[in-house]
Amino acid sequence: MADNAPTTLADLAYEVRSKNAGPFWVTMELFMRDADAYAVAADESFLDERRVAELYGVDESDIQMFRIPSLNVVKISFPRPVSQASLRDRDVHSGQHHVPLATLPVPDRAAGRLPR
């Protein structure tokens, strides 16, 4: 990564993944490296239902977010745009849904506090 590249959520995480939560829902999980990184991902002024709705083109009111500080995990679930394995489904396992979330740049104010 170039030195001038913005810090992303993936840079602060052990893993960012997405998967099916049944045939009609997608779940994404951010497994953050430590409490400081978790504080960035769990910060509602940075990552909230509105931001997820913008990233994924889903209705903000359908998004469920779970912040689990004891595990340094943020979990996000929302309805799939089309049901699993339907004719228009382009990602049967929802294995690629996490990419926009993983590549989301963190605010400079947060990135400056964290080691790379």
In short:
The protein contains four helices and four strands.
Description:
- It is a single chain.
- The protein is of the alpha+beta class.
- Helix content is 21%, strand content 24%.
- A four-stranded antiparallel beta sheet has the order 1-2-4-3.
- The longest helix has 8 residues, at 35-42.
- It is globular and about 40 Å long.
- The mean pLDDT is 85.
Give the helices and strands as they follow along the chain: EEHHEEHH
Helix content: 10-25%
**Distance between termini?**
11 Å
Uncertain runs are: none
Number of strands: 4
Oligomerization state = single chain
Largest sheet: number of strands, sense, barrel closure = 4 strands, antiparallel
Mean pLDDT figure: 85
C-alpha Rg (nearest Å): 14 Å
**In DSSP terms, counting alpha (H) and pi (I) runs of 4 or more, how many helices?**
4
Specify the overall morphology: globular
Query: Structural class, judged by helices and strands?
Result: alpha+beta
Strand order, main sheet: write it out: 1-2-4-3
Estimate the strand proportion: 15-25%
Keywords for this entry:
single chain; 116 residues; alpha+beta; 4-stranded antiparallel β-sheet
Describe the SSE topology.
Blueprint: E1 13-20, E2 25-32, H1 35-42, H2 49-56, E3 64-68, E4 73-79, H3 99-102, H4 108-111
